[in-house]
C-alpha cells in the first residue's frame, strides 16, 4: 500500500515553512465556513513531500474525519491515467496516434457532424475528416458531454441517457457504439470540447490490449506503481474509508449527494476511463511522481521521458490556448494561456491566465473539486482532494497554485 508522509523539512527544498503553512490555514477556512466537508492537500518538491495535511470530515453525517487512508472519487483525474495507458500501447508499437478510431472501433467509420436544427431533429452532414486517436487525447474529436447544457448535441446525449456516465446496464463497448451514432459537435481537429473522448480511449485500450480496462490498469499501471487503493469501485470491506459526496446547499452549507455518491460502492458495468476511478492521496501521489520523474518511479518505468515530454506539451493547432480554440463551457480549468497536451492541460503563457505559476505546468482535476498539477520549472507537484460537486464552485485550483508558489523562496 502506498504511503504518503512528510519526508523533508520545507527549508531543505526551498519552501519558507511559515509561508507554506498558509496553504493549510487558507483551506481550513473553507471547512470552518461550511463550504467544504473536509480535504487533503499534499505538496512535494524534487520528489520530497514537504506538506501533507488534512482538515475536516470525510463524512459529516458519520462524524468521520479525513485521514491518510481516505478514499476519494477522482472523476476526471482518471483521464491522465487512461491517456498514459494509451501512450504505453503507443510505445509498444501497437497503435499510432494518427490511426483512425474506426480501425479499432468500426462504429466510428461513418461519422456525421451537426450542422443545424434542434436536438429532436438535428441536421447533419458526413464528417470530412476521420476521428483519430490524437483527437481523442486532445479533446478535439467533436464528441461532447450531456452535462454541458451548451448545445443541441449535448441535449441529444442526455436524451440517449448520457449525462453523467452511461445508461444503467450499458457497458463501455455499447456506449462507444452509441456515441458513434450521435452527431459530432464539429469536424474532428477543428475545435476543443471537453467530452467522452477519454472513455472512447479506454475502449481502445481494451481492444488493443485484449484486456478489460480495469484489468489493464491493475496490471500495467496500479500494481507497478503500488497504487493498491485505486480502482473502479470501493470494495465492500473498505466502504468506511470512502468520503461522502456533497453539493452546495443554496440555503447555506452542504447537501449530501447519495445518488451519485453511492455509485462508487458498486462494481460498474460501464468502466469509465474518463471519470470512473476512486483513489487515495497516497496512490495518486505515486502517479504524479511517475510523471514528474519522466515516466519512472522506484525502478519501474511506464513511459520514456521523451514520451512524457511529448504528452505534456501543447498539442492544440498553431499553439493556441483553450480560450482561443475551445468551446465556452466548463472545462474544470481556467483557459487563458492554457493549452492542452495528450490528456492534460499545459500552461503556455502564465501571465495570460493571471494565476501564479510557470510555463510548462501540466494538470487536470475532477468533477468533485479534486485537482493535481506538476510544475517542471519549479520541480513541484501538488494535489488537493475533497468531494464537492461541481468543480469550479470556488477558486480552489488557482488558489492552490498561488499559495504553493508564494511559499517558494529559492
TrEMBL record:
Ranges where the Beta-lactamase-related domain occurs: 25-404
Keyword Acyltransferase among UniProt keywords: no
PANTHER family, per database record: BETA-LACTAMASE FAMILY PROTEIN (AFU_ORTHOLOGUE AFUA_5G07500), BETA-LACTAMASE-RELATED
Taxonomic source organism: Pseudonocardia zijingensis
InterPro entries from the UniProt entry: Beta-lactam-related (IPR001466), Beta-lactam/transpept-like (IPR012338), Diverse_Enzym_Activities (IPR050789)
Name of this protein: Serine hydrolase domain-containing protein
MF terms (GO), sorted A to Z: hydrolase activity
Keywords: Hydrolase
Pfam annotation, one family: Beta-lactamase
Transmembrane parts of this sequence: none
Amino acid at each position: 500500500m502506498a504511503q504518503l508522509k512528510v519526508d523533508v523539512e520545507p527549508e531543505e527544498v526551498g519552501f519558507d515553512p511559515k509561508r507554506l503553512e498558509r496553504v493549510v490555514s487558507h483551506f481550513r477556512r473553507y471547512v470552518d465556513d461550511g463550504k467544504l466537508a473536509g480535504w487533503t492537500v499534499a505538496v512535494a518538491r524534487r520528489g520530497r513531500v514537504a506538506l501533507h495535511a488534512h482538515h475536516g470530515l470525510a463524512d459529516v453525517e458519520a462524524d468521520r474525519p479525513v485521514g491518510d487512508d481516505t478514499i476519494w472519487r477522482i472523476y476526471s483525474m482518471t483521464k491522465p491515467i487512461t491517456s498514459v495507458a494509451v501512450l504505453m500501447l503507443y510505445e509498444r508499437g501497437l497503435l499510432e496516434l494518427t490511426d483512425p478510431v474506426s480501425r479499432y472501433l468500426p462504429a466510428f467509420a461513418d461519422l456525421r457532424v451537426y450542422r443545424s436544427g434542434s436536438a429532436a431533429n438535428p441536421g447533419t452532414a458526413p464528417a470530412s475528416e476521420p476521428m483519430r486517436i490524437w483527437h481523442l487525447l486532445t479533446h478535439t474529436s467533436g464528441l461532447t458531454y450531456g452535462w454541458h447544457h451548451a448545445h443541441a448535441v449535448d441535449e441529444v446525449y442526455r436524451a440517449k441517457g448520457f449525462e453523467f456516465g452511461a445508461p444503467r446496464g450499458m457497458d463501455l463497448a455499447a456506449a462507444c457504439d452509441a456515441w458513434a451514432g450521435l452527431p459530432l459537435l464539429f469536424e474532428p481537429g477543428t475545435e476543443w470540447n471537453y467530452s467522452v473522448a477519454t472513455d472512447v480511449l479506454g475502449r481502445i485500450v481494451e481492444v488493443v490490449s485484449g484486456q478489460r480496462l480495469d484489468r489493464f490498469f491493475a496490471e500495467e499501471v496500479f500494481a507497478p506503481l503500488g497504487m493498491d487503493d485505486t480502482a473502479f469501485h470501493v470494495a465492500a470491506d473498505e466502504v468506511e474509508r470512502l468520503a461522502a459526496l456533497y453539493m452546495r446547499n443554496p440555503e447555506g452549507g452542504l447537501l449530501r449527494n447519495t445518488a451519485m455518491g453511492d455509485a462508487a460502492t458498486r462494481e460498474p458495468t460501464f468502466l469509465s476511463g474518463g471519470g470512473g476511478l476512486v483513489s487515495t492521496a497516497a496512490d495518486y501521489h505515486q502517479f504524479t511522481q511517475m510523471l514528474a520523474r519522466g515516466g519512472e518511479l522506484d525502478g519501474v518505468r511506464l513511459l520514456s521521458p521523451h514520451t512524457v515530454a511529448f504528452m505534456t506539451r501543447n498539442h492544440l493547432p498553431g499553439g493556441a490556448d483553450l480560450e482561443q480554440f475551445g468551446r465556452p463551457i466548463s472545462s474544470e480549468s481556467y483557459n487563458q494561456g492554457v493549452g492542452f497536451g495528450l490528456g492534460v492541460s499545459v500552461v503556455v503563457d502564465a501571465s495570460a491566465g493571471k494565476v501564479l505559476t510557470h510555463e510548462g505546468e501540466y494538470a487536470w482535476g475532477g468533477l468533485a473539486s479534486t485537482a493535481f498539477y506538476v510544475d517542471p520549472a519549479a520541480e513541484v507537484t501538488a494535489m488537493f482532494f475533497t468531494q464537492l460537486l461541481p468543480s469550479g464552485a470556488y477558486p480552489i485550483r488557482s488558489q492552490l497554485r498561488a499559495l504553493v508558489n508564494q511559499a517558494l523562496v529559492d
